[in-house]
Amino acid sequence: MANSGATIAAEPGPITLDWSKTALVIIDMQRDFMERGGFGETLGNDVSQLARAVKPIAEVLAAVRDAGLLVVHTREGHLPDLSDAPPAKVERGAPRLRIGDPGPMGRILIRGEAGHDIIPELYPLDGEIVIDKPGKGAFYATEFGDILQKYGIENLLVCGVTTEVCVNTTVREANDRGYRCVVISDGCASYFPEFHEMGLKMIKAQGGIFGWVAESAAVLAALAG
Ligand code: C5J
Prior knowledge:
Structural class: alpha/beta
Bound molecules: dicarbonimidic diamide
Strand order of the largest sheet: 7-4-3-8-9-10
Number of strands: 10
Number of helices: 8
């Protein structure tokens, strides 16, 4: 590890983290959200809006791997029999294809299908933790909390998609459980740029009501010591 800890230039103010108690959490960088033909596009979204987060995440992921921090990837998706997919989620709205329907990358948002997997640019290394979650938050109905406890993690560097849905939900869950969350602003993206902006503002407002927000360059500088 390059340094045992460092201060990140963040908003609403700087935050000092002990790297041995810090994990990088990459939320849902899956083909189903990032590529045409997946869940995100079937909901009517312009998936090209999310591409901007890939390079900043890749840079932080490389630095975090070099520094030896814990890396956790998450994927949103459901069992093939949909037993973990509430009807209220499956039946909602009027998408072109619903969860479980066959699409160009396999069944939409179903574990084991090509579309459910993480994009090649950010693919987990052997041994990195991958959390499969049925909901928007990474703690709900998963082993995420137990894993963080097992590794003695107190701080999360959080990035991924989408800013206002799965990133925000996970940060709110983590905040209530006592974790310090630093959200990497340019490592998150939304189909709606205005929701991205507001999603970050909601986290850092009121003295950091849910956590801190920092650019990837600030995280990289802190990791470099
Ligand atoms: C959504 C997510 N947007 N990963 N999921 O449905 O943010």
